[in-house]
């Protein structure tokens, strides 16, 4: 197996979480009737800022967990070059935050559809 595949291999915990999420979404889609699907977009429009705060909060939690796990792994390894690994970690976290804010502004806050609407209307 190549090094890339070994680095990107899923853990058992990750696969279990993906399985449970897939089963939960499947059950939800089977049990939801059409009225809930029709009312969902209206609820999202009314509670736009609440959903934005929840979405940003969840991503902040993901970033904090990612950072703490990687920092602990670097700290526990005690190898030479740990300063370089910490610098790469900080650069990676900054890169992920930048991507998140760009995607959040373009799609979460619907800036991209608004800009396209201005250009093509």
Task: Walk me through the structure.
By secondary structure, the protein is mainly alpha-helical. It contains six helices and no strands.
How far from one another are the termini? 52 Å
Main sheet properties: none
The helix-strand sequence is: HHHHHH
Radius of gyration in whole Å, from Cα?
20 Å
Chain-averaged pLDDT: 77
Number of strands: 0
Count up the helices. 6
- Helical content stands at over 70%
The assigned structural class equals mainly alpha
Which consecutive residue ranges, at least 5 long each, have pLDDT under 50? none
Shape: flat
Approximately what portion of the residues adopt beta-strand conformation? under 5%
Describe this structure in a few short sentences.
Helix content is 87%, strand content 0%.
Indicate the topology:
Layout: H1 3-7, H2 12-31, H3 34-46, H4 48-77, H5 82-108, H6 111-120
Helix pairs in contact: 4-5
Attribute tags:
mainly alpha, 121 residues, 6 helices
């Amino acid at each position: 197996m190549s090094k890339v595949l070994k680095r990107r291999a899923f853990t058992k915990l990750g696969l279990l979480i993906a399985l449970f999420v897939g089963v939960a979404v499947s059950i939800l889609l089977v049990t939801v009737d059409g009225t809930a699907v029709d009312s969902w977009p209206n609820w999202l429009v009314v509670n736009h800022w609440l959903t934005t705060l929840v979405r940003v909060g969840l991503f902040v939690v993901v970033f904090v967990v990612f950072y703490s796990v990687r920092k602990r792994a670097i700290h526990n390894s005690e190898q030479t070059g740990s300063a370089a690994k910490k610098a790469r970690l900080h650069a990676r976290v900054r890169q992920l935050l930048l991507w998140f804010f760009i995607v959040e502004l373009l799609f979460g806050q619907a800036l991209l559809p608004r800009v396209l609407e201005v250009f093509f209307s």
